[in-house]
Specification:
Elements: E1 9-13, H1 18-29, E2 33-38, H2 41-50, E3 55-58, H3 64-71, E4 79-82, H4 97-125, E5 129-136, H5 147-167, E6 172-179, H6 191-198, H7 212-221, H8 229-242, E7 248-252
Parallel strand pairs: 1-2, 1-4, 2-3, 4-5, 5-6, 6-7
């Protein structure tokens, strides 16, 4: 059955590239009124040209006060996709305060802040809604030099469960999407090449061959190339089903590049 978001208003963070951009396109095609949030205005301009009629908000979600000003009065939102994330590779012994704070502020703290804004609005309106938190395979299968990023995604997985327990009674459903690195545009950013340079002798994604990694690879978690339509459609479907009756629902997805 074809999904229909007509009459619904969706907010997508990290909308400029990768999964977020693809999700905006998918929701727009399904009839939703979409608010696209990104810190890069040029990405929002090009996205608006591809998806006429969407609203755009240019803000750095790592800045709490700026986010409150930009989204605090955003109006009614029925669907939220928390996709924004930043990644900077550092060996564990070389992790800096700036990178730690920046990564947690964008990848985790902004999820709390934006979700609070949307959830409070849903509760005040007395209507059901849905929130989807986009995680990563590195929450479960980790690699060297990704200590901080992996930690944010592991924390997000737990946060999603807690949010489901607390927001479920208000009919705010939670969904979680877990994707491989290529889905978020990291392939184009050269993450694989940097991995090779910092971990010589190990192929990117080799951790998927270890232990539980093999099972998850068989379930479609191995990074692959592709159009990314399945990723975006999967998130759209999760956003739709998560809003029914509250609770938490997980979604493992095959990673693929999105434009």
């Amino acid at each position: 059955m074809r999904l229909d978001f007509s009459g619904g208003r969706a907010l997508v963070t990290g909308a400029g590239k990768g999964i977020g951009r693809g999700t905006v396109k998918a929701l727009h095609a399904l009839g939703a009124a979409v608010i696209a949030v990104s810190r890069t205005n040029t990405d929002l301009v090009s996205l608006s040209e591809q998806c006429p009629g969407i609203e755009t908000v240019c803000v750095d979600l790592g800045d709490w006060e700026a986010t409150e000003r930009a989204l605090g009065s955003v109006g009614p939102v029925d669907l939220l996709v928390n996709n924004a994330a930043t990644l900077q590779m550092q060996p564990f012994l070389e992790v800096t305060k700036d990178v730690f704070d920046r990564t947690f502020n964008v990848n985790l703290r902004s999820v709390v802040q934006v979700s609070q804004i949307v959830a409070r609005g849903l509760i005040q309106r007395g209507v059901p809604g849905s929130i989807v938190n986009v995680s990563s395979m590195v929450a479960h299968v980790t690699f060297p030099n990704l200590a901080v990023y992996s930690s944010t995604k592991g924390a997000m997985t737990t946060l999603t469960k807690v949010m489901a327990a607390e927001l479920g009674p208000y009919k705010v459903g939670m969904g979680g999407g877990t994707w491989g690195t290529e889905a978020g545009g990291h392939r184009r950013s050269g993450l694989g090449r940097r991995w090779g340079a910092q971990a010589p002798g190990r192929r990117w994604g080799a951790g998927l061959r270890d232990g539980n990694g093999r099972q998850r690879a068989r379930r479609g978690l191995r990074p692959t190339q592709g159009s990314g339509q399945g990723v975006s459609d999967g998130l759209s479907a999760r956003a739709s089903s998560a809003g029914v009756g509250g609770g938490a629902q997980g979604l493992w997805g095959r990673a693929s590049s999105t434009c």
